[in-house]
Amino acid sequence: MSVTAAAGFRASGVAAGLKTTGATDVALVVNDGPSLAAAGVFTANRVQAAPVLWSRQVLTGGRLQAVVLNSGGANACTGPEGFQNTHRTAEQVATALGLNAGEVAVCSTGLIGLQLPMDKLLPGVDAAAAELSADGGEAAAVAIKTTDTVHKVATAGGTGWIVGGMAKGAGMLAPGLATMLVVLTTDADVPADALDTALRAATRTTFDRVDSDGCMSTNDTVLLLASGASGVAPETGEFAEAVRAVCADLARQLIADAEGASKDIAVEVEGAATEADALQVARSIARNNLLKCAIHGEDPNWGRVLSAIGTTSAEFDPDRLDVAINGVWVCKGGAVGEDRDLVDMTGREVRITARLNAGGEAVTVWTNDLTAEYVHENSAYSS
Amino acid sequence: MSVTAAAGFRASGVAAGLKTTGATDVALVVNDGPSLAAAGVFTANRVQAAPVLWSRQVLTGGRLQAVVLNSGGANACTGPEGFQNTHRTAEQVATALGLNAGEVAVCSTGLIGLQLPMDKLLPGVDAAAAELSADGGEAAAVAIKTTDTVHKVATAGGTGWIVGGMAKGAGMLAPGLATMLVVLTTDADVPADALDTALRAATRTTFDRVDSDGCMSTNDTVLLLASGASGVAPETGEFAEAVRAVCADLARQLIADAEGASKDIAVEVEGAATEADALQVARSIARNNLLKCAIHGEDPNWGRVLSAIGTTSAEFDPDRLDVAINGVWVCKGGAVGEDRDLVDMTGREVRITARLNAGGEAVTVWTNDLTAEYVHENSAYSS
């Protein structure tokens, strides 16, 4: 049900010819209100695509009437012309639907450094406006795919209200968000500042802890739009949990569809002195190419886990580190533990647990293995 | 000529059976003096192998009589038994040669988390002692190879004195040194503190700027031994330059032989406000898996360079970034520059130049492309 699971929203997805395959590549999501409250979080990359610069500015008002998204081109590193093209795209939406361009967010994904073919995109926007429907959420989710093999949607909610969402992203997945575009909608009646709080809390422990390949994108955007059409104003904690649940569901789907991956790896760090320590250690493990290769080969190579932990500034004693792989404590006290032959790594999901024995904080970061297919897909992407 | 290019040194390399292939795996380097001055630098990893803990302690005296090295096992994450084995190995050298074990450095390389087979290693030490010769440098260089396809030696020097060295390392190559063992020798008459200064200065701009795969080892060791046998005490700057030249030569050989690599990539960062900024940006570029895949595919994907720069805290304006690949300025002012089709990437060496336009500092970091062969080699290493 995607972004149209919530009442008050229409969406669509059409083919504008941005993708050479002829697949759909322009999506539109419109909030018919009565509320137009919205919030957004964006990439922490300092090199930001034109649509990120635009949408960040739009969101300062805490309102969104619509979101237009295109695949087939990131519109990043495209200079003033790129920014004008983003502005022009928002204007086209505003004209087609009688909206204010200053309340239309724009998201783009695809190759960096190419100007968007506006002669195709602008007619595509008109076509998307004509196709808008209250059950167009799936079509929108399909249209934002790039190298994704499947589209990603999720929902969660309470009595009389729901949060729904769609996501794309399969490479350049790393913290400060992944290379991904996410639009969440809700018919709950929640003001913009509460949306912002819930969204930041949710992304901090979900999308920000997806680190497929360590590469941070220029275009990451997560938007949350509330129509208030249900007439229900949920309790703050209940609403925040629904937003978190949808984000967690979508984040897990991103990892499951990461480029070339054959394993989904949960890196669990326990017993850290601080959450920041736990996160630093988890990221270091998640980004260790040698370990990611070992996991690909179903090799419970805990030595590579320890060498990754050793590169951090987290509080720990090297002689008190424990590491489990799929529940087998192959490293105890910084040295050989249980028999590594007991580890079963044949499944797609692998859990690496690193216990620092320095405190009570814990985090989980999700990553993938490193495969020849990842190399192939990303060495041929632009050709 | 390796470590026996300098007068006053003997070396050897023998097969002790640590490697299942039957290749040589124990090397010995002995300083016959008259001076025994020495210095060393070690991995910055906080998880350190037993031989690193041992050799670091030995070096506090500023003297080394011998260095014993083994491939076929890293003796890392091996607990008290591992440390005892390192100590025992030094004692074996001392007994065989009539030396003080407290002046014998030990270096190990291979898999983490396995105890060394002392029943093979100790007889190997005796055999290596028996084989010592003034032209044993090549044999020693061969015996320390792991996944290296070739052994690495280099020399430089002045009138009447020389610096020679050997290195091993082909994976887990990253700063704070690479997974590598390096022994340098000189017959120049240089006191320990001057050796230390020259060695730290040299490694800082050579081995510490080799970042093949972002993975820092538990065992990295670079030792410099001076026999004084030439009777020449070179001028400080001239000696430092010779040490730097040998380190640079060996570092370049490490990159050229990195596991699975098909491209050697010089990441040059110019116009940085500080050297630390330049280094941070260069490392971020060098560690970007997507970019490394693109280079493998001979794709001048400057967008991935910009997205890597954007993840740093270095001083720059995104709209003033310039990027050249093999001399073609494919990105100017943060946007499209010269025609990417002009870039010739068919050679093994690729130069990526990122100009931050924020100051006058520059550094070069060497890395490799990411290939299916790297994945294969490192997913099958321990099996």
Automatic annotation (TrEMBL), chains A, B:
GO terms for molecular function: L-glutamate N-acetyltransferase activity, acting on acetyl-L-ornithine as donor. The record marks T109, G110 as: Involved in the stabilization of negative charge on the oxyanion by the formation of the oxyanion hole. It is found in: Cytoplasm. The keyword Manganese does not apply. The active site is at T179. InterPro entries: Arg_biosynth_ArgJ, ArgJ-like_dom_sf, ArgJ_beta_C. The record marks A178, T179 as: Cleavage. Its EC number is 2.3.1.35, 2.3.1.1. Its main location: cytoplasm. It comes from the Bacteria. It catalyses: N(2)-acetyl-L-ornithine + L-glutamate = N-acetyl-L-glutamate + L-ornithine; L-glutamate + acetyl-CoA = N-acetyl-L-glutamate + CoA + H(+). Keywords: Acyltransferase, Amino-acid biosynthesis, Arginine biosynthesis, Autocatalytic cleavage, Cytoplasm, Multifunctional enzyme, Transferase. Pathway: Amino-acid biosynthesis; L-arginine biosynthesis; N(2)-acetyl-L-ornithine from L-glutamate: step 1/4; Amino-acid biosynthesis; L-arginine biosynthesis; L-ornithine and N-acetyl-L-glutamate from L-glutamate and N(2)-acetyl-L-ornithine (cyclic): step 1/1. Substrate binds at T146, K168, T179, E259, N378, S383. Signal peptide: none annotated. It is an enzyme of class 2 (transferase). Heterotetramer of two alpha and two beta chains. Belongs to the ArgJ family. NCBIfam families: ArgJ, PRK05388.1. Catalyzes two activities which are involved in the cyclic version of arginine biosynthesis: the synthesis of N-acetylglutamate from glutamate and acetyl-CoA as the acetyl donor, and of ornithine by transacetylation between N(2)-acetylornithine and glutamate. This is Arginine biosynthesis bifunctional protein ArgJ.
